[in-house]
Amino acid sequence: MQENLRVVLMKIESQLMEYGFSWENVLYIHLYIADMREFAEANETYVRSITQEKCRFGVPSRSTIELPLLQVGLGRAYIEVLVATDQSKRVLHVQSISCWAPNCIGPYSQVFILLAFSNTCLLGHA
Fold first, then answer.
1. Any idea of the CA torsion for 19, 3, 52, 29, to the nearest 10 degrees?
2. Three-state DSSP state, 74
3. Who's near 84: CB < 8 A, 6+ residues apart?
């Protein structure tokens, strides 16, 4: 899982740069994984790759969803990102302390505010 996701994140980062974007421009990430039992591994790789240093306006909001990716030839991880050229976003982070959310989740984005919504695109990569 970790190597598969690391490669996918590198491809997305390369694709972002190709279009003149960076992780700062990413508003929202859909992270699809083949097996939710591998969430801790996926999250470990994710938080090492998408950092506050790369996202000075706040790391993107994220949802993680289990899908049968292997059955359709998409590997163990697939990512879609919503990108905007406007950098006015503000992000509220919360730390999970609930009994159902594992503490490996760490800080995550709960809410983001974008002052202007223009020039957006959706990039996906497996």
1. 60
2. coil
3. 25, 27, 114, 117, 118, 119, 120
Per-residue pLDDT tens digits for 6-34: 999 999 999 999 988 899 888 889 899 99
pLDDT at 126 over 70: no
CA nearest to 83, candidates 28, 26, 123: 26
CB 5 within 8 A of CB 47: no
Residue type for position 27: L
Query: b/e for 11-41, b at 16 or more Cβ within 10 A?
Result: ebbeebeeeebebbbbbbbbbbbbeeebbeb
Q: Closest Cα partner for 42 from 79, 68, 93, 83?
A: 79
Rounded Cα–Cα distance for residues 24 and 6 (Å): 18
Q: What are the helix (H) ranges across 2-113?
A: 2-18, 39-49
Q: Which of 37, 8, 44, 25 is nearest to 86 (CA)?
A: 25
Which runs of E-coded beta strand occur in 34-119? 61-66, 77-84, 90-95, 107-113
